[in-house]
Write a structure and sequence with these properties.
Structural class: alpha+beta
Helix content: 10-25%
Radius of gyration: 26 Å
Largest sheet: 8 strands, antiparallel, barrel
Order of helices and strands: HEEEHHHHHEEHEHHEEEEEHHEEEEEEEE
Strand order of the largest sheet: 12-13-14-15-16-17-18-19
Low-confidence stretches: 1-5
Strand content: 15-25%
Shape: globular
Number of strands: 19
């Protein structure tokens, strides 16, 4: 059975249309637009409410707020991959700043630098960025709210420092660098720091009356890297596809995996939500989602992807509050993943068969616990208990004949095969733990030995 890309079934499309309509009506939003991506392409999109006459909903711009941070983070990791900085560098090594200079680049990306959440008043999202012309002007009286590295504390000024870092190392404005190195390669031609028609107007909708008033759309100035961008569902769908697969022209799979790995423990009150290096990580309806939300006066936005389901969704609305874009995107993902799950990749035999490695597979014992060692394509090994739970890891082959763990308990640890003088296998050593063919195999090199009377 082989399939090319398949469009969604009519029943799924109707369910997605209905979910969008309910969100717009219940959220009392002037307009909501949304899209779903699967396997790298848009499989559904729609719009509801007031839209510019004749415009394709997927091409209407909205402010996306803090989704901007994810794109800024991608650019910072590009600089790291080029060798221009290390994530462990204090940002003050590269940028002259009176505050926050001792925070590392990684701490700023993951909001663990302990810096204040907001810029110096008046309310920075509603006042022109020209009020805070220099980095020194964005910090209030108490820039440091927590010890650096200790806990997650969301910080918009932290991302202003990252914007300045990009500008310093590239010698060009944050917006120009982002356009050339991230937006253009991903085909995000309708994303930028200023609106261009067709675009939505930002509204505040009264919480108890069906009336509204326009919101100011200010330039954030120094805080642009934290939230300035305007975008469309069409462009953010391309970004969602990137969050699923990476793109070697922008950021490869290894750096993308770093981006998606939680950087700090979640706050106890919000145990299902974590933060990586510029992206939020959340568990919703049993799925692990990666993405970001955004809000600025007049606008709310969400982009989320489910790597396990290969599905992503985007939603944008032009109301200050009350529109559940995060729930909408999670719901759109759930509808597609539940109604039309993708089949797994077909099993295929490995391209090569090393008899010595095949002979190594099977049951090994960590003390008295039976474990299975399996061989995969490319000389990759996996090791885990025969029973459910326990320590499971995959191991990639290294040049010296050992293997290195990639995940789970043994991530970064070494697996090596210990041989006897005659070349036969005595045991497997994983991070100093000894795995033998029989439980505490007599004669095998088990630290502490096995009882001379044996099992009784």
């Amino acid at each position: 059975m082989t399939h090319t890309h398949m469009d969604l079934l009519p029943a799924t499309r109707r369910a997605l249309d209905h979910r969008l309509a309910v969100t717009q009506a219940e959220g009392r939003a002037p307009s909501v637009v949304a899209a779903v991506v699967r396997e790298g392409r848009v499989v559904w999109s729609g719009g509801r409410g007031e839209l510019p006459p004749g415009a394709d909903p997927a091409d209407v711009q909205y402010r996306v707020g803090s989704i901007t941070k994810s794109l800024t983070a991608v650019q910072v990791l590009r600089l790291r991959d080029e060798g221009l900085l290390d994530l462990g560098d204090p940002v003050g090594r590269h940028v002259a700043t009176p505050h926050g200079g001792t925070a590392t680049v990684a701490q700023l990306l993951g909001h663990t630098a302990g810096l204040a959440a907001e810029a110096r008043g008046p309310w920075w999202e509603r006042t022109d960025g020209a009020l805070r012309p220099e980095l020194a002007d964005i910090f209030g009286e108490r820039p440091q709210r927590h010890p650096a590295g200790r806990r997650f504390h969301y910080s918009n000024p932290g991302y202003a420092l990252l914007g300045a870092l990009i500008e310093t190392l590239r010698g060009a404005s944050w917006a120009e660098v982002l356009r050339a190195e991230v937006l253009a390669p991903l085909g995000m031609t309708r994303t930028g720091p200023l609106p261009s028609a067709p675009h939505a107007r930002g509204w505040a909708v009264h919480p108890f009356a069906d009336v509204r008033q326009p919101e100011p759309a200010v330039d954030l100035g120094r805080l642009a890297a934290a939230g300035q961008l305007w975008s469309t569902t069409g462009d953010l769908a391309a970004f969602a596809a990137f969050l699923l697969d990476g793109d070697d022209r922008v950021l490869g799979p290894a750096a993308l995996a770093e981006l998606r790995t939680p950087a700090a423990a979640p706050e106890p009150a919000d145990w299902d939500t974590g933060y990586g290096l510029g992206v939020q990580v959340a568990r919703r309806q049993g799925r692990l989602l990666v993405g970001h939300g955004g809000s600025l006066p007049g606008f709310v936005a969400s982009v989320w992807v489910s790597p396990a389901d290969r599905v992503g969704a985007v939603a944008l609305a032009n109301a200050t509050s009350g529109v559940a874009t995060a729930a909408l995107t999670a719901g759109l993902i759930d509808l597609v993943a539940t109604n039309e799950p993708l089949p797994p990749e077909p099993w295929r035999p490995a391209r090569e068969a090393d008899p010595e490695l095949v002979a190594l597979t099977g049951v090994w014992h960590w003390g008295s616990a039976p474990c299975a060692l399996r061989l995969h394509d490319g000389r990759v090994l996996s090791l885990g208990p025969l029973a459910d739970g326990g320590r499971r890891s995959r191991f990639l082959p290294a040049a010296d004949g050992t293997w290195t763990g990639t995940d789970g308990y043994y991530a970064g640890e070494t697996l090596r095969v210990a041989r006897r003088a005659d070349g036969s296998v005595d045991h497997i050593d994983v991070g100093s733990f000894v795995f033998t063919r029989e439980p505490y195999e007599p004669g095998a090199d088990v630290p502490g030995g096995s009882d001379p009377e044996g099992w009784r």
